[in-house]
Amino acid sequence: MAVKIALPKGRLLRRTAAILQKAGWDIDDYTSRTSYYHPKSGKYPDLVIRVFNEKDIPIQIALGNYDLGICCRDWLEELLAKYPTSDILTVRNLGFGEGALYTASVAPLRELRGNGTGVRIASEYPNLAERYALRRRLSRFSVFPVWGAAEAYPPENADVALLAAGGRDLAATTGGVRWLVETQRDDGTWDEPQFTGTGFPGDFYINYHLYRLVFPLTALGRWCAATSAPGTVGGAR
Fold first, then answer.
1. What pLDDT is recorded for position 106?
2. Which terminal residue of the chain, N or C, has fewer Cβ atoms less than 10 Å from its own Cβ?
3. How many other β-carbons are positioned within 10 Å of the β-carbon of residue 46?
4. Mean pLDDT of 47-73
5. Calpha distance 225→33 (Å, rounded)
6. Could you give the domains of the chain?
């Protein structure tokens, strides 16, 4: 019987492809530029491979459609939050795709409890969002499943956003760090010619002069802490 494996597209594709290449699987046409969802392995020609959205991989494994899969643990936890008796299990930590789930809210949770209308929670992880609400003993709440960018929903369309963040090896993270390093001035600061605050639209605008210093330094500091790097990042001070 052929072994079936589900591989991720998106944020984990590059690292997954690299680790399989290092293992000598010789997988063809598994890159971020391809739209082909059935790559083949030159080393294991009988292996059945299918590329999925990462969030669908634990579901495919739990249903028995595939034997193995690679995804971040948050999607496994999302499945187990609703189906805790599922037989799906973690085989091995591959050492990439790290991250964590965070909540962002428009006010402290104790204040949201007393708003009289219930707490609205937006998340790509509706099962984990419901578990979050129950564990915090919210008597009235609504969960709105979204596809990415949950942080954009508060305050108009949600009170709380449960979202994934972190992952120092993600392309977006490394790209942001690289841009900060490349655009840093010799005196250690950054340029920001745009006005970042609005007084009255079309009348006057506000420039928060320290924003261009505080936020880049905070981001680079967290990067150094997460990667156990010294106090310089590719020349950034």
1. 81
2. N
3. 8
4. 93
5. 33
6. 4-82 (3.40.190.10), 100-165 (3.40.190.10), 171-227 (no CATH)
Is residue 63 a contact partner of residue 4, using CB atoms and an 8 Å limit? Answer: no
Average pLDDT over residues 113-126: 85
CB 147 within 8 A of CB 163: no
pLDDT, tens digit (0-9, with 9 covering 90-100), for 166-179: 654 556 677 888 88
Q: Using one digit for the tens of pLDDT, what is the confidence trace for 127-145?
A: 999 999 999 888 889 999 9
Which residues lie below 8 Å from residue 66, measured CB to CB, with a gap of 6+?
A: 4, 5, 6, 50, 57, 60
Global model pTM greater than 0.90: no
Helices (H), the chain: 13-22, 57-62, 73-82, 109-113, 126-135, 171-183, 211-227
Tell me whether residue 197 is exposed, middle or buried, using C-beta atoms within 10 angstroms of its C-beta: 0 to 12, 13 to 18, 19 or more.
exposed
